Amino acid sequence: MNRSRLTRCLHALLALAVVHQLLVSLVMKAPEEGREAAGLGGGLFEFHETVGLASFAVVLAYWLWAWLRRSETSMASLLPWFSAAGMGALWRDLQMQWDVLRTRHAPEYEPGGPLASAIHGLGLLAISAMTVTGLLWWLTYEAVAVDGIGETVKEIHELFAPLAWAYLIGHALMALWHSWHGQRAIQAMFHCRRD
Q: Could you read off the pLDDT of 88-147 as tens digits, one per residue?
């Protein structure tokens, strides 16, 4: 399946944003309530906020493009658990992948396959949860009228972080694994030739 230039650009922006946000989150330091961000940790926290707002826009654009595009992975393929047909295709693909693995061979890389699409959809949902809760935390951080909501949103935001890490690591490892087996997974997503 060929990916459009817009899909590849949005994927690259999303990948950069996710990697940046997760790495910065390891060393940033949120300021205490009522205080300004200070030092390197505080500066990185403010940078995390700024990139987070841009990341929200990228995620929103990705969802909009996934909904509008016609010749690539459909929204129904990204979110198959909402239909019997989608779940059936996912189950059949999962069984086929398992059968190939049992023969000690690498399953063929299928970027538009039901399993790959569903996993991409789960990753997009996890990153969406991170950006939405990050935005809500940013909006409620200093709001006195919604006392306690900001802290709850912050906790939800932090709850999704391990899922984002797991998805990022798993996604990268699978791309490398397919490439190691001679399948052009990375090149297919990040090639720069004209459409």
A: 999 998 898 888 878 877 667 676 788 888 988 999 999 999 999 999 988 887 554 456
Establish how many alpha carbons lie within 13 A of residue 158's alpha carbon, considering only the half-sphere containing its beta carbon.
Answer: 9
Q: Say if CB 111 and CB 93 are below 8 A apart.
A: no
Q: Tally the C-alpha atoms within 13 A of residue 54's C-alpha that lie toward its C-beta.
A: 15
Q: Which two tokens stand for residue 100?
A: 């190939």
Amino acid identity of 55? S
- What length does the chain have? 195
Enumerate the H helices of the chain as residue ranges: 5-25, 39-68, 75-78, 84-102, 114-140, 149-180, 185-190
CA dist., res. 44 & res. 27, Å (int): 8
Position 4 scores a pLDDT of 82
Of 3.40.50.2000, 1.10.357.30, 3.20.20.300, 1.20.950.20, the CATH number of 5-73+81-190 is 1.20.950.20
- Alpha-carbon distance of 148 to 125, in angstroms, equals 25
* Amino acid sitting at position 123: G
